[in-house]
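User: Modeling request: complex.
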Amino acid sequence: MSLTIPSPIPLEHFKRFILSMADDELVLGHRDSEWTGHAPILEEDIAFSNIAQDEIGHALVWYTMYEELGGPSPDEMGFLREWNDFLCCHFVTYPRGDFAYTVVRQYLYDVAEQVRLRALLSSSVEALRSVAEKLIREESYHLLHSQSLVERLGDATPESHDRMQRAVTEAFPQALGIFEELEGESSLIESGVFVGNTALKSDWLKEVVPVLRKASLHVPVQLDAENVRVLAAADEGGRRGRHLEHLKQLVEDMQQVYRLAPQSQW
Amino acid sequence: MNQQDQPRAATESSVERTAEVWKALKEVRDPEIPVLSLVDLNIVRSVEVTEGCVKVEMVPTFAGCPALNIMRDEVVSKLRSLGFEHVEVEFTLHRRWSTDDLSEEALEKLRTFGIAPPVHLMSPEAGSHLERLQRAVAQPVLCPFCGSTETKLDAFFGSTLCKQLYFCTSCQQSFDRFKPV
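Assistant: Request completed. Predicted assembly structure:
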């Protein structure tokens, strides 16, 4: 099956956009899977195992679209690509850390994904609308889950508050990197593919800041009238393939078995 | 394929062959919820028969569900056993799959299997998908064993991607609820 997109949309930039979403999902799914058998309580072990499976399934949906646009197969994209060819943001590549960090990262990512998919529901590309319509149904469960943990753990006990605060301080600037401008983004905006990362970031801030504040967590932003001014530098580079060592290790680990026998049928 | 010398597909009208395919697909079961067939699950959307070939269009339930590959393989072997030389199964995302579209019969089958069926997501009140989901998960869930409403959500996720774990305080049993999506 092949997919054609309306001609004014530059194919290479469109493909990079698809790939950035696929890579975010695969890498975060891999990090989430690292909690299987290790989460602090059984319910969360099940939750993060489920979320990992969902995210990797969603990565497959995006990689399949990439293949339909003339790219290599999903397996080749996930398991035979060099680490510096990934276009995920730095945020999803960091080690799982403290469980509080995992909860905060998942929440900040889930909201970002929610606003992104919501925007894609009105994309000019029909295939993006269909995928967004599918994924948003599943992703909404992730967000209800992570938001309820943030709300409960933010001010449950002094220890939970401290750990959640440390996680927010660390994760917030990293999360801003989700919205790093893509190559050729202005052409994607002009052709109605999506509203662009600046608009998505602004929607994201409007959702996460009040929730974190209500959970007694300090966020490095200043509110001037309607606007949210960010007082932290975004952790960027991932969308241009400039990655940290963490991703190199993750990719080596993830690809190890596949590369032993790439022709095997699983 | 031992009876391929008999050109069955050519002698029968494709309408009859198509009906045979649908009937056969009703016998292919969800490997994780074997009371439901692929037709009950509303996964099969179209069947196209031409000569000795059949093309089946399916929609995935949950995008990451590992049972999808098993279902595809079972559809292929089932339809080969009907004498089709070439069986093509295509998953498409261009058609919606929602638990709202499951038939009353399918919901009843889930209940008798011990899984609380999903509630309807589409409510008359508008709103984003997230808001509809919030309203849906706030509704009471009936225990599939004793029918009590004294149940509580134990874990937001469950043993498979399509389920959540509940506990019934009346009959003291854990049970799964099919996620409304």
